[in-house]
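Handout for the seminar on molecular recognition.
Each group receives one record of this type.
Step one: identify the two inputs.
Step two: read the structure output and locate the region that could contact uridine-5'-diphosphate.
Step three: write two sentences on what you found, then compare them with the reference statements printed after the record.
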Amino acid sequence: MKIDVMGVQFDNVTMDEALSSAISLLPARRGAYVVTPNSEIVYEAMHDPDLLALLNKADLVLPDGAGVVLGSKILKTPLKEKVAGVDFADRLLGHLAETGGSVYLLGGKPGIAEKAGEKMRAKYPDLTICGMADGYFTDEKPVIAAIQAAKPDVLFVCLGAPKQEKFMAAHQKELPVGLMAGLGGSLDSFAGTVKRAPKWMIRMNLEWFYRLLKEPRRFGRMLRLPKFLWAVVLRRMRGAR
Ligand code: UDP
């Protein structure tokens, strides 16, 4: 079932359900893609019809962040839970390791995918990482050719929004992979170069605050969170959904 949060059609799934849906998409190898918008990205999509269309065209739309879940509650159509992109990615890696599947890591600054790959292999020794490339390429052709040759089951596309959504939608037909996942800064998290908030902060929905403390340059972007919530409240008050 889909739930509309300010125009973005989210899948109303738990983490386990998100994982099952993702796994069911793998065998067809038709370049299905999953997006993981947080409230900043939903706010951006409210002002960018092209980004909104790319998000809503995805096979799976997961609510990455407490802000989106809160927004859905204010709109009286609550989403079941937050499905953080990085946690979803980790679960998917676990599945690939168990089933002999492979992943290709695309994105991040040079060296980040390698570091992330080392951490992934340490956690999942049976995981096959069949290729990796940084996200600062100028020519897409060799990147596409390398992914086609590697034939991964899953492609992590970590280029930030909206670049990753544009990449996945544009190359869907050329990339016979099971699933592409647009995961923003997740490779930085796996690599350990950007630390995640302590568990108690995640539990209290304060992960955004931790990121703000660690990366104050994000302040401008993060103002989109209160702007998003204000827009949600206005919509709720007007009774239009
Ligand atoms: N990035 C990239 N290529 C680009 C721009 C960004 O690979 O041309 C990477 C960047 O290094 C970072 C990620 O994309 O790892 C975006 O992370 P950010 O935290 O800004 O995005 P979010 O997760 O909030 O979408």
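Reference statements: The longest strand covers residues 102-107. The pocket of uridine-5'-diphosphate is lined by residues 107-109, 135-136, 158-161, 163, 184-185, 187-188 (CB under 6 Å).
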